[in-house]
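Consider the following assembly input.
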Amino acid sequence: MEYSLAVQDDAVHVRVDGRVDEATWEAFGGALSDAVQQAGQSGLPTVVIDLSELDYMSSRGLRVLTVAKRQADEGAIAIVLASPNEVMSEILAISRYDKLFTITGSAGAKQ
Amino acid sequence: MLVRFWGTRGSLPVAPTAATIRRKLAQALVSAGSLQFYNIAEAELFVEKELSFAAGATYGGATSCVELETANGSYFICDMGSGLRAFGLDSLRRNAAGHSKTFNFFQSHLHWDHIMGFPFFAPAFDPTVTIRIHSGHPDAEEALRRQQEEISFPVPFNWLRADIQFVRLTPGETYEVDGVKVETILQNHSHDSYGYRFTDADGKTAIYSTDSEHKLENMADEAAFIDFFREADLVICDTMYSLADSVSMKEDWGHSSNLVAVDLCHSAEAKCLALFHHEPTYEDEDIQRMHEESIRYEELTREGPPLDVICSYDGLEVRI
């Protein structure tokens, strides 16, 4: 799993590549924490997690999303999941995380 | 080892209503179309082969009670939910045929739905029966006596005639109980709960891990559960909620999700996962959907050998 952070369209974008699982969830959690912190410090209202290059995410990764959302909620920052592939869309539906998070088709769209 | 599920529902016993049965029958008749059945066996074959499990059967509504039948002869039972009543009656039949009258219970914990079957456990009235209640809790006896006090039940605990013993187990220790190796692990649940790992003389291993919440902030601690589940032939696991429910509205209610169970079993390279402790508000169709989704999630996230994901129901038998 690899990731990068960038500021674009009034949001901090986290681009994640590979898969988030037993071996990589801690690094992914660190990236999300950094992104939320950066959004707070920069006064940006949104963190967009670009899932377009993500193969899939296990429950470890999903739960890290919840941890990040709690951190973001404290600063009134929204987290948006963008461009999940078919596998990830299915996992978001099976886990019912599609009820907890805003999911968009495009990471580029201004939130 | 043969595993029999006598009760698989979580929290509260449930039963199908007249409307539910009527709907299942109507659905079956519609599915049969113009087919004719000349005897019950033909009709049962149609139900088994052509209808989904939810349409042609039911997952049942008795609360937690699972029997492990091993070669050595004494009974092994996990939890005393309302499923224990049916097990008790069946054991009388087996006792009459010469089965050992020693019952080894292993308590996940002492909450209502896990002990409510004991006042209805008929062998407890037999003076030739030995009942050993193994528990990680120091207050197992108090819990069982209290539920048979006059305010709750007409028959006091003292009227039971069996030789009833209480055995305290400690996580990290390995015990041998009538030829079966038993280990236990502390789980996160209100007033604590304990999981069990049973290994029989043939080396077959079954895990019983219910009423166990795997907390968001303690994900690193799940390594202990992965070790505990390691290469098990069967893992019976609390899968009461969706992952989203378990981290939102139902957080701290003490239960886990189907996705976490699959992930733990994948990491442990377990062979089979039995979904267990079904949400009492779920209809059969809801449980079946949860089962199908769990199978799909296992496929989507599999990196090693396949994990067989089955869904427990009252009456299911699994040989490992």
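The interface with chain A takes residues 216-217, 219-220, 242-245, 247-248, 257, 259-260, 262-263, 266-267, 293, 296-297, 300-301, 303 of chain B (CB under 8 Å). Ask yourself how this observation constrains the way the partners meet.
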